[in-house]
Write a structure and sequence with these properties.
- The protein has 293 residues and is an alpha/beta fold.
- It is built from eleven helices and nine strands.
- The two termini are 34 Å apart.
Length: 293
Protein backbone atom coordinates (compact mmCIF):
# COMPACT_ATOMS: atom_id res chain seq x y z
CA UNK A 1 0.00 0.00 0.00
CA UNK A 2 2.81 2.43 0.90
CA UNK A 3 4.64 1.69 -2.36
CA UNK A 4 1.46 2.47 -4.31
CA UNK A 5 1.07 5.77 -2.49
CA UNK A 6 4.71 6.73 -3.11
CA UNK A 7 4.33 5.78 -6.78
CA UNK A 8 1.22 7.95 -7.10
CA UNK A 9 2.88 10.97 -5.46
CA UNK A 10 5.95 10.57 -7.68
CA UNK A 11 3.73 10.39 -10.77
CA UNK A 12 1.90 13.56 -9.77
CA UNK A 13 5.19 15.37 -9.14
CA UNK A 14 6.41 14.35 -12.59
CA UNK A 15 3.43 16.05 -14.22
CA UNK A 16 4.64 19.46 -13.02
CA UNK A 17 6.93 21.56 -15.23
CA UNK A 18 10.51 21.22 -13.98
CA UNK A 19 10.63 24.80 -12.67
CA UNK A 20 7.46 24.28 -10.61
CA UNK A 21 8.62 20.83 -9.50
CA UNK A 22 11.84 22.29 -8.13
CA UNK A 23 10.01 25.20 -6.53
CA UNK A 24 7.76 22.76 -4.69
CA UNK A 25 10.78 20.81 -3.45
CA UNK A 26 12.39 24.02 -2.22
CA UNK A 27 9.18 24.99 -0.43
CA UNK A 28 9.13 21.67 1.41
CA UNK A 29 12.75 22.29 2.39
CA UNK A 30 11.97 25.79 3.68
CA UNK A 31 9.39 24.27 5.99
CA UNK A 32 11.97 21.74 7.21
CA UNK A 33 14.37 24.61 7.83
CA UNK A 34 11.85 26.67 9.79
CA UNK A 35 10.78 23.66 11.87
CA UNK A 36 14.43 22.99 12.83
CA UNK A 37 14.21 19.39 11.69
CA UNK A 38 16.76 16.64 12.11
CA UNK A 39 18.02 17.34 8.56
CA UNK A 40 18.72 20.96 9.43
CA UNK A 41 20.59 19.95 12.59
CA UNK A 42 22.76 17.40 10.77
CA UNK A 43 23.48 19.83 7.92
CA UNK A 44 24.50 22.52 10.41
CA UNK A 45 26.92 20.16 12.20
CA UNK A 46 28.49 18.96 8.96
CA UNK A 47 29.01 22.43 7.53
CA UNK A 48 30.49 23.70 10.80
CA UNK A 49 32.94 20.79 10.77
CA UNK A 50 33.89 21.05 7.09
CA UNK A 51 33.95 24.83 6.66
CA UNK A 52 35.29 26.19 9.98
CA UNK A 53 36.79 29.24 8.23
CA UNK A 54 33.37 30.49 7.14
CA UNK A 55 31.65 33.04 9.36
CA UNK A 56 28.50 32.12 11.25
CA UNK A 57 26.36 33.97 8.73
CA UNK A 58 28.09 32.25 5.80
CA UNK A 59 27.59 28.85 7.40
CA UNK A 60 23.93 29.63 8.10
CA UNK A 61 23.37 30.63 4.46
CA UNK A 62 25.08 27.44 3.27
CA UNK A 63 22.86 25.35 5.56
CA UNK A 64 19.80 27.04 4.12
CA UNK A 65 20.87 26.65 0.49
CA UNK A 66 21.89 23.04 1.05
CA UNK A 67 18.45 22.15 2.41
CA UNK A 68 16.79 23.87 -0.54
CA UNK A 69 18.80 21.69 -2.92
CA UNK A 70 17.96 18.59 -0.89
CA UNK A 71 14.28 19.43 -1.32
CA UNK A 72 14.73 19.99 -5.05
CA UNK A 73 16.51 16.65 -5.32
CA UNK A 74 13.55 14.92 -3.66
CA UNK A 75 10.91 16.19 -6.09
CA UNK A 76 13.25 16.30 -9.09
CA UNK A 77 13.96 12.57 -8.87
CA UNK A 78 10.25 11.87 -9.27
CA UNK A 79 10.39 14.01 -12.41
CA UNK A 80 13.33 12.25 -14.08
CA UNK A 81 12.16 8.77 -13.06
CA UNK A 82 8.78 9.23 -14.75
CA UNK A 83 9.48 11.51 -17.69
CA UNK A 84 10.78 10.08 -21.00
CA UNK A 85 14.54 9.60 -20.77
CA UNK A 86 14.96 11.55 -24.02
CA UNK A 87 13.24 14.58 -22.43
CA UNK A 88 15.55 14.49 -19.43
CA UNK A 89 18.63 13.98 -21.57
CA UNK A 90 17.66 17.02 -23.62
CA UNK A 91 18.03 19.10 -20.46
CA UNK A 92 21.68 18.18 -19.97
CA UNK A 93 22.99 21.55 -21.13
CA UNK A 94 26.72 20.94 -20.96
CA UNK A 95 29.13 18.06 -20.43
CA UNK A 96 32.54 18.98 -19.06
CA UNK A 97 35.26 16.36 -19.48
CA UNK A 98 33.20 14.35 -21.96
CA UNK A 99 36.31 13.30 -23.86
CA UNK A 100 37.63 11.69 -20.69
CA UNK A 101 34.58 9.43 -20.57
CA UNK A 102 34.70 8.62 -24.28
CA UNK A 103 38.37 7.61 -24.12
CA UNK A 104 37.74 5.45 -21.05
CA UNK A 105 34.85 3.64 -22.71
CA UNK A 106 36.92 3.06 -25.84
CA UNK A 107 39.68 1.43 -23.78
CA UNK A 108 39.91 -2.31 -23.21
CA UNK A 109 40.20 -1.69 -19.46
CA UNK A 110 37.19 -1.65 -17.20
CA UNK A 111 35.74 1.61 -15.89
CA UNK A 112 34.48 2.56 -12.44
CA UNK A 113 32.26 5.62 -12.62
CA UNK A 114 32.03 7.24 -9.19
CA UNK A 115 29.12 9.53 -8.29
CA UNK A 116 29.18 11.32 -4.92
CA UNK A 117 25.91 12.62 -3.47
CA UNK A 118 26.00 15.96 -5.27
CA UNK A 119 23.34 17.67 -7.35
CA UNK A 120 21.17 14.97 -8.88
CA UNK A 121 23.43 11.92 -8.65
CA UNK A 122 20.67 9.68 -10.02
CA UNK A 123 21.03 11.48 -13.33
CA UNK A 124 24.68 10.46 -13.76
CA UNK A 125 23.62 7.06 -15.08
CA UNK A 126 21.56 8.49 -17.94
CA UNK A 127 24.41 9.81 -20.09
CA UNK A 128 26.43 6.65 -19.46
CA UNK A 129 23.53 4.39 -20.46
CA UNK A 130 23.43 6.04 -23.88
CA UNK A 131 27.04 5.03 -24.49
CA UNK A 132 27.61 1.64 -22.87
CA UNK A 133 25.93 -1.05 -20.76
CA UNK A 134 26.85 -0.78 -17.10
CA UNK A 135 26.10 -2.15 -13.65
CA UNK A 136 25.61 -0.02 -10.54
CA UNK A 137 25.97 -0.98 -6.90
CA UNK A 138 23.09 -0.19 -4.59
CA UNK A 139 21.98 -0.64 -1.00
CA UNK A 140 18.50 -1.93 -0.31
CA UNK A 141 16.19 0.71 1.21
CA UNK A 142 15.18 0.34 4.83
CA UNK A 143 11.60 -0.14 3.66
CA UNK A 144 11.85 -3.33 1.61
CA UNK A 145 8.43 -2.70 0.06
CA UNK A 146 9.92 0.24 -1.85
CA UNK A 147 12.79 -1.74 -3.41
CA UNK A 148 10.91 -2.98 -6.53
CA UNK A 149 9.69 0.57 -7.16
CA UNK A 150 13.20 2.02 -6.89
CA UNK A 151 14.56 -0.68 -9.19
CA UNK A 152 11.88 0.16 -11.75
CA UNK A 153 12.63 3.88 -11.61
CA UNK A 154 16.39 3.42 -11.88
CA UNK A 155 16.00 0.98 -14.77
CA UNK A 156 14.26 3.85 -16.58
CA UNK A 157 17.61 5.69 -16.55
CA UNK A 158 19.61 2.62 -17.62
CA UNK A 159 21.95 0.15 -15.97
CA UNK A 160 21.68 -3.15 -14.15
CA UNK A 161 21.68 -3.34 -10.33
CA UNK A 162 24.18 -5.25 -8.19
CA UNK A 163 23.66 -5.42 -4.45
CA UNK A 164 26.43 -4.40 -2.07
CA UNK A 165 26.96 -7.90 -0.73
CA UNK A 166 29.61 -10.50 -1.48
CA UNK A 167 27.73 -11.93 -4.48
CA UNK A 168 27.09 -8.50 -6.01
CA UNK A 169 30.67 -7.36 -5.45
CA UNK A 170 32.06 -10.52 -7.10
CA UNK A 171 29.76 -9.93 -10.06
CA UNK A 172 30.97 -6.33 -10.34
CA UNK A 173 34.59 -7.42 -10.23
CA UNK A 174 34.02 -9.93 -13.05
CA UNK A 175 32.44 -7.20 -15.17
CA UNK A 176 35.41 -4.90 -14.63
CA UNK A 177 37.94 -7.61 -15.46
CA UNK A 178 36.12 -8.16 -18.76
CA UNK A 179 36.43 -4.46 -19.61
CA UNK A 180 32.90 -3.47 -18.53
CA UNK A 181 31.64 -0.49 -16.54
CA UNK A 182 30.45 -0.29 -12.94
CA UNK A 183 28.94 2.66 -11.06
CA UNK A 184 29.35 3.30 -7.35
CA UNK A 185 28.57 5.94 -4.70
CA UNK A 186 31.75 6.56 -2.66
CA UNK A 187 30.56 8.61 0.32
CA UNK A 188 28.18 6.37 2.25
CA UNK A 189 29.46 5.20 5.61
CA UNK A 190 30.27 1.45 5.48
CA UNK A 191 30.31 -0.95 8.39
CA UNK A 192 33.55 -1.17 10.37
CA UNK A 193 34.62 -4.39 8.63
CA UNK A 194 34.51 -2.78 5.18
CA UNK A 195 35.96 0.62 5.92
CA UNK A 196 38.85 2.54 7.42
CA UNK A 197 39.08 5.98 8.95
CA UNK A 198 40.46 8.57 6.56
CA UNK A 199 40.36 12.38 6.60
CA UNK A 200 37.38 14.05 4.99
CA UNK A 201 37.63 17.83 5.21
CA UNK A 202 40.36 17.21 7.83
CA UNK A 203 38.10 15.11 10.06
CA UNK A 204 38.28 11.31 10.37
CA UNK A 205 35.41 9.65 8.52
CA UNK A 206 34.72 5.94 8.17
CA UNK A 207 35.37 5.44 4.45
CA UNK A 208 34.68 2.46 2.18
CA UNK A 209 37.60 0.35 0.98
CA UNK A 210 35.54 -1.26 -1.78
CA UNK A 211 36.27 1.33 -4.47
CA UNK A 212 40.09 1.09 -4.30
CA UNK A 213 39.90 -2.69 -3.92
CA UNK A 214 37.88 -2.99 -7.11
CA UNK A 215 40.26 -0.64 -8.93
CA UNK A 216 43.43 -2.45 -7.90
CA UNK A 217 42.10 -5.98 -8.44
CA UNK A 218 40.67 -5.24 -11.88
CA UNK A 219 43.12 -2.57 -13.10
CA UNK A 220 40.03 -0.54 -14.00
CA UNK A 221 40.04 3.16 -14.74
CA UNK A 222 38.33 5.46 -12.23
CA UNK A 223 36.38 8.58 -13.19
CA UNK A 224 34.36 10.79 -10.84
CA UNK A 225 31.19 12.43 -12.09
CA UNK A 226 28.90 15.20 -10.85
CA UNK A 227 25.46 16.22 -12.12
CA UNK A 228 25.23 19.90 -11.22
CA UNK A 229 21.75 21.41 -10.97
CA UNK A 230 21.37 24.60 -13.00
CA UNK A 231 19.03 27.42 -11.88
CA UNK A 232 15.33 27.54 -12.64
CA UNK A 233 14.33 25.03 -15.30
CA UNK A 234 17.65 25.06 -17.14
CA UNK A 235 18.43 21.43 -16.38
CA UNK A 236 21.86 20.08 -15.48
CA UNK A 237 25.56 20.28 -16.25
CA UNK A 238 27.60 17.04 -16.12
CA UNK A 239 31.22 16.95 -15.02
CA UNK A 240 33.74 14.12 -15.50
CA UNK A 241 36.95 14.28 -13.47
CA UNK A 242 39.95 11.93 -13.51
CA UNK A 243 40.68 10.20 -10.23
CA UNK A 244 43.84 10.90 -8.28
CA UNK A 245 46.09 7.93 -9.08
CA UNK A 246 46.73 7.30 -5.37
CA UNK A 247 43.21 5.88 -5.31
CA UNK A 248 44.92 2.74 -6.63
CA UNK A 249 47.24 2.53 -3.60
CA UNK A 250 47.43 -0.92 -2.01
CA UNK A 251 47.36 0.53 1.51
CA UNK A 252 43.74 0.95 2.69
CA UNK A 253 44.15 4.25 4.58
CA UNK A 254 46.13 5.90 1.78
CA UNK A 255 43.65 4.83 -0.87
CA UNK A 256 40.63 5.84 1.26
CA UNK A 257 42.27 9.23 1.84
CA UNK A 258 42.59 9.63 -1.93
CA UNK A 259 38.93 8.71 -2.41
CA UNK A 260 37.86 11.38 0.06
CA UNK A 261 40.13 13.98 -1.57
CA UNK A 262 38.49 13.20 -4.91
CA UNK A 263 35.05 13.61 -3.34
CA UNK A 264 36.15 16.97 -1.93
CA UNK A 265 37.20 18.03 -5.45
CA UNK A 266 33.74 17.12 -6.68
CA UNK A 267 32.02 18.99 -3.85
CA UNK A 268 34.03 22.12 -4.71
CA UNK A 269 32.11 22.33 -8.02
CA UNK A 270 28.87 23.21 -6.21
CA UNK A 271 29.29 22.87 -2.39
CA UNK A 272 25.71 23.83 -1.56
CA UNK A 273 24.42 20.92 -3.67
CA UNK A 274 26.15 18.24 -1.60
CA UNK A 275 23.97 16.07 0.64
CA UNK A 276 25.11 17.64 3.90
CA UNK A 277 22.08 16.20 5.70
CA UNK A 278 23.74 12.75 5.67
CA UNK A 279 25.58 11.71 8.86
CA UNK A 280 28.97 11.39 7.22
CA UNK A 281 30.81 11.44 10.58
CA UNK A 282 28.35 9.21 12.39
CA UNK A 283 30.92 6.69 13.65
CA UNK A 284 33.60 8.35 15.82
CA UNK A 285 37.11 6.98 15.49
CA UNK A 286 37.94 7.34 19.17
CA UNK A 287 34.68 5.95 20.54
CA UNK A 288 33.52 9.29 21.96
CA UNK A 289 29.99 10.64 21.72
CA UNK A 290 28.60 11.03 18.21
CA UNK A 291 28.97 14.38 16.50
CA UNK A 292 25.19 14.50 15.97
CA UNK A 293 24.04 13.77 19.54
Amino acid sequence: MKARFVSLIAHLLSLLPLRLNRALGASIARMAYLLRTRERRITKVNIALCYPDKSDSEQAEMVYQSLLHTGRQLTECAWIWNRPASTTHGLIREIKGEQLLREALASSRGLILVSPHIGNWELCSLELSRSAPFTYFYRSPRNQALEPLLMKWRAHLGGQPASLDSAGIRAGLRILKKGGTVGILPDQEPDRENGVFAPFFNHPALTMTLLPRLATRSNAQVIFTVSERLPGAQGWRLHYLPADTTAYHDQPVESATAVNKNVERCIAICPEQYLWSYKRFDTPEDGTAQQYS
